[in-house]
C-alpha cells in the first residue's frame, strides 16, 4: 500500500494528525454512487468511530508517525483513513508522506470497498491512484499512476477488500488458533492473504497500558512475514511488525486511541 514509506509487505497494514471528522488531505476517497436496493447491507455493522496514533520504527529506530481513523458517513457508509509521515532521518528530510482512504459499506458481515484513494508524496513528487469498486457489475478499476503491468479492470469476488479493510476484518475475526483467509484487491492487483492466529494470548504493553493480545501472522514467503497484535474491545491494531530473514524491520506501535462521536 505504501510504495514510498514502507515496502509492499507492510503496505497492507495501513493514518498523522487527522481528526475524526476530516479526511487526510489529498487522499480522500471519492463518494460512491448509491447502491441498488438489492445491494443494500442487511444489517448495521458493529463498528465505532475512533482515532488511533502510532509511532513507526525501522530496525528499532524511530522513523515517523502514523494515524488511523474510522469515520461514520451517511448510513450505511463508513470511511477509514490512514496517514503515515516520515519525521526522522532521510525519510524526514525527504518530506515523505503516504495517505490512504477507503469508503465502504457492510454487506452481511463483509466490509465492502466502494472507492479507494492513495497518495504518496515527497518534497518534489506526488503520485495518486483512485480505485472504484462497482458491485453491480462486479468489477474494479483504477485511475491515476497505476502500474502499467496492472491496469485492470479486475473481476470482483464476494469478500474482496483493500488493505485498510483487511485490518478491520482481522480485528473482528481473530480468535486463538484460527486461520483467516482474505483476498486483497487494490491498485490493479489481487493477492491471497492468510493469517494464522496463535493459540495462546500474549501480554503486550503500550505505554502505561497492558493488553491481552492475539498474535496473527502472515508469511509472504520463507523470508518475510507480517505480524499483527489485536485485542478484544480495541478497534485498531496494537502493534504491526514486519520481519525479513528473521530480523525485525518496520514496526508500528500504538501510542493511544480514543473513540469519537
Observed structural traits:
3 helices; mainly beta; 15-stranded antiparallel sheet; 261 residues; 51% strand; single chain
State the gist of this model.
The protein is mainly β. It has helices at 8-11, 89-93, 163-173; strands spanning 50-58, 61-72, 78-86, 97-107, 110-121, 126-134, 139-144, 154-155, 179-186, 189-197, 202-206, 209-221, 224-231, 239-244, 247-259.
What does this structure look like?
The protein is mainly β and 261 residues long. 8% of the residues lie in helices and 51% in strands. The protein is built from 3 helices and 15 strands. It has a 15-stranded antiparallel sheet that branches. The longest helix is centred in the middle third of the chain and has 11 residues, at 163-173. It is globular. It starts with 7 loop residues before the first helix and ends with a strand. Mean pLDDT is 80; it is low at 1-24, 34-45 and 90-95.
Amino acid at each position: 500500500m505504501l510504495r514510498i514509506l514502507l515496502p509492499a509487505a507492510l503496505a497492507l497494514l495501513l493514518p498523522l494528525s487527522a481528526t475524526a471528522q476530516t479526511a487526510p488531505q489529498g487522499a480522500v476517497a471519492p463518494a460512491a454512487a448509491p447502491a441498488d436496493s438489492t445491494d443494500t447491507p442487511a444489517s448495521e455493522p458493529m463498528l465505532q468511530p475512533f482515532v488511533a496514533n502510532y509511532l513507526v520504527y525501522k530496525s528499532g529506530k524511530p522513523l515517523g508517525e502514523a494515524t488511523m481513523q474510522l469515520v461514520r458517513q451517511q448510513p450505511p457508509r463508513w470511511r477509514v483513513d490512514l496517514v503515515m509521515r516520515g519525521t526522522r532521518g532521510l525519510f524526514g528530510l525527504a518530506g515523505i508522506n503516504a495517505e490512504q482512504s477507503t469508503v465502504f459499506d457492510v454487506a452481511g458481515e463483509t466490509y465492502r470497498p466502494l472507492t479507494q484513494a492513495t497518495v504518496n508524496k515527497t518534497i518534489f513528487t506526488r503520485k495518486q491512484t483512485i480505485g472504484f469498486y462497482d458491485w453491480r457489475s462486479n468489477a474494479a478499476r483504477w485511475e491515476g499512476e497505476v502500474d502499467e503491468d496492472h491496469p485492470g479492470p479486475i473481476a470482483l469476488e464476494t469478500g474482496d477488500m483493500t488493505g485498510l479493510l483487511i485490518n478491520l476484518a482481522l480485528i473482528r475475526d481473530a480468535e486463538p488458533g484460527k486461520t483467516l483467509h482474505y483476498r486483497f484487491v487494490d491498485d490493479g492487483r489481487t493477492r491471497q492473504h492468510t493469517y494464522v492466529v496463535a493459540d495462546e494470548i500474549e501480554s503486550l504493553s503500550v505505554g502505561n497500558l497492558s493488553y491481552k493480545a492475539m498474535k496473527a501472522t502472515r508469511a509472504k514467503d520463507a523470508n518475510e512475514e507480517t505480524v499483527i497484535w489485536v485485542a478484544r474491545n480495541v478497534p485498531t491494531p496494537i502493534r504491526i511488525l514486519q520481519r525479513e530473514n528473521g530480523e525485525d524491520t518496520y514496526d508500528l506501535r500504538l501510542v493511544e486511541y480514543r473513540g469519537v462521536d
